[in-house]
Input
Amino acid sequence: MPIIDQSVIEGFREVSNDDLTIDINGKSHVILCGLCNEKITFIGEVDIESGQAGCAKCGNIDSVEEVARIATEYVKDEGQLIINRMARDTARNSEFMTVSGQTEHDKSHRFIVAELTF
Ligand SMILES: [Zn+2]
Output
């Protein structure tokens, strides 16, 4: 079974229009608020080192570093779930295979990543 390699997550960066994105497999993905699915932005000063980012709408705000950590964790968890779902769907067509891996998140992430594909 493939494992999501941490190296596919290349980093956290800002883009010119103030959206915060994370690079996965060379593609940048917008980070969203995990509570209301709004795009998150820098709060106050645009500073990738020591600034704050989050959702102005519902007040889900943290340091940029923490936002990046949670978004990265989401990507890794989601990657594993996608693999588990694929395994489950394969097993469904087989009499001889059962899959018991988790297919839904068992915890909520305060920051998530849009349009995640692997
Ligand atoms: Zn929000």
In short: The chain has a mean pLDDT of 83. The pocket of zinc ion is lined by residues 33, 35-36, 38, 55, 57-58, 60 (CB under 6 Å). Residues 8-113 form one domain. The CA atoms of residues 87 and 99 lie 7 Å apart.
